[in-house]
């Protein structure tokens, strides 16, 4: 480059030379800045995945799915407890050791309270107000306020509403008088989760299998479609949050936010006018808005291996002001999370049952042993169902990774002879690759095999809790895990009781992941048959 500049100077004249000098100075500073940002792990003396200039360790034009890329990053240094990589210019530490995960997510939680910030609160208030995006004390207060809505006793109250949706789902396909109904499962299951959340959270009665283009469903699909364009937006958030703020980019599309704002405001208005009470999140937030806090109450019942417990972090802040915007934001993120993650889990669970007929047969035998109408307590007592659900969550965790931002300087002390203290400065990011940990043969022999016996009474106690984290770990685990598990188990119960799930001509065996989606997604869809029994 310097030879080219020297050649051009005599040709450009004084003005041209000045402009060329300015360009070279800007380019030189930019080059120096990028190289300095991508030199952090080298300076700290730890192993790291070599970054490409500006792009970091990730592929911007992917040749494989994000889950596969995370798996490769995880496997780069198999003997290390942690190592570095770069998300564009952001130095990120990938955490692989269960004890270190426990330190970061539980023991030293105060140093790692927050997820990474994406957008400015003023630019996207619907995103920044929700529980996932909230930070520090604002997160603690809102978590404590919402927790009572997700106790086991609240789940039992919601059970009948979920059960009704599951029965309608089964009846829809029973009524088609076909020996085998062929379905693209992800779309079909999204319709089920859409109806469940509409009922249990918003008090709306929707049948998305019949009303196939209802606005509730279409808005959910629009908000959760992480195709190539939206993936590029997320990459831009990673590359330059300040540029995203300047461009006022949003996580939640405006049309989605506007739609749910109207629905939730109308729901709140009707409930206040007619004194309607439903055991759902909107009701709880309305109660909190009035200053009425509800103590948590749990039923003395085994909720299964996959259930996570709530940390006793803080008591609800009685002075916390819950605005209508807060209610809208929490209800919206609850819908979006449940709409896609639960349907994704069920999608892969049904696929595994189709290609593992011995597992499906044993599960059906257990389910058919229930003679009476299914109840909340009876459902949770089905051991093999819980084993199947746990194995699906292991192999196909709804979130392929999670993160923690360093809130204040933290030192990882050495535990191996070749380690030295590692100082993590405020603002750095730690990444916990859930999908890769769940498929590490150190913890799960033959990790690609779908084997519910990993979670039987004899084996489940051998599993390190920090190597099974489908809903995250520590105080910032998924608040809706009980809801997701109950909804999923209910549908599996009713479907397996009434149908045999079978592969069809369109079924991809093995599955091929869609490289353009952020989360688990099958290229061309997951096609299966529901065969009447």
Descriptive overview:
The protein is globular. The protein has 19 helices and nine strands. The model has no long low-confidence stretch (mean pLDDT 87). It is an alpha+beta fold and 533 residues long. The strands form three sheets. The chain has a four-stranded mixed beta sheet. Strands 3-9-8 form a three-stranded antiparallel beta sheet. It has a two-stranded antiparallel ribbon with strand order 5-6. Strand 1 and strand 2 (90-95) form a beta hairpin. The chain has helices at 2-37, 40-44, 66-75, 98-107, 125-128, 136-146, 152-174, 185-202, 215-224, 228-239, 241-246, 254-274, 281-289, 324-355, 357-368, 376-380, 383-395, 434-438, 481-498; strands at residues 82-87, 90-95, 180-184, 402-405, 410-412, 422-424, 429-432, 499-503, 527-532.
Q: Please tell me how large the radius of gyration is.
A: 25 Å
Q: Can you give the helix content as a percent range?
A: 40-55%
Q: Which residue ranges are poorly predicted, with pLDDT under 50 across at least 5 consecutive positions?
A: none
Counted beta strands: 9
β-strand percent reads 5-15%
Order of helices and strands: HHHEEHHHHEHHHHHHHHHHEEEEHHEE
Helix and strand topology:
Blueprint: H1 2-37, H2 40-44, H3 66-75, E1 82-87, E2 90-95, H4 98-107, H5 125-128, H6 136-146, H7 152-174, E3 180-184, H8 185-202, H9 215-224, H10 228-239, H11 241-246, H12 254-274, H13 281-289, H14 324-355, H15 357-368, H16 376-380, H17 383-395, E4 402-405, E5 410-412, E6 422-424, E7 429-432, H18 434-438, H19 481-498, E8 499-503, E9 527-532
Parallel strand pairs: 2-7
Antiparallel strand pairs: 1-2, 3-9, 4-7, 5-6, 8-9
